[in-house]
Design brief:
Length: 150
C-alpha cells in the first residue's frame, strides 16, 4: 500500500508557500489516491495538473500501481477547514448543527472558535425581536456548504 505520509510530503512540496492548501487526502487499500485542494483565491485546472504530475512523477508504478485523482474542493463540497470558512466570509452558507438545526445566512465572521451567520428574518420574526445573528462553534457544525445563488 502506498504510504500516506509520502503523499503528504509530495503535496507539501508543491503547495507550501502558495495560497493553496490541502483539504482532504484519502489513500485506499487498493492504492486509490484522492486529493482535494483549495486556495485562498480559488483553484484552477492547471493547479490540479501541476500537483497531479508532481505526485505521479515521484511515485514508481513499477513498484506499486495506483490510481490518482486530484481535484479542487468544489462549491458543492462541505467546508472542512477554518481557512475555507475565512475565505468564504460574505457568502451565503447553509449550516446543519449536531443537534439537527439548519440555518442559512450570510457568513459574517469566521474566528478561530466559531462562525457568525446573518440570517434573513421574516417580518414576524423581526417584530418578535428574534436575533438575525446565529453563532455556532465549529465542533457543533455537522455540515456546512456554500449556497449557490443565481
Amino acid at each position: 500500500m502506498i504510504d500516506k505520509v509520502e503523499i503528504l510530503d509530495l503535496i507539501r512540496e508543491v503547495l507550501d508557500g502558495t495560497d493553496k492548501f490541502l483539504v482532504d487526502l484519502h489513500v485506499s487499500k487498493d492504492n486509490r489516491i484522492n486529493v482535494s485542494i483549495d486556495g485562498d483565491n480559488g483553484i484552477n485546472i492547471d493547479d490540479c495538473i501541476e500537483l497531479s504530475r508532481h505526485i505521479e512523477g515521484n511515485l514508481d508504478r513499477e513498484k506499486e500501481d495506483f490510481e490518482l485523482n486530484v481535484a479542487s474542493a468544489g462549491l458543492d463540497s462541505p467546508l472542512k477547514l477554518l481557512r475555507q470558512y475565512k475565505k468564504n466570509v460574505g457568502r451565503s452558507l447553509k449550516v446543519e448543527t449536531m443537534d439537527g438545526e439548519v440555518k442559512e445566512g450570510v457568513l459574517m465572521e469566521a474566528t478561530d472558535e466559531k462562525i457568525v451567520l446573518k440570517l434573513e428574518l421574516t417580518k414576524k420574526q423581526k417584530k418578535e425581536g428574534v436575533s438575525d445573528a446565529f453563532e455556532c462553534q465549529y465542533e457543533q457544525i455537522k455540515i456546512a456548504k456554500i449556497v449557490i445563488k443565481f
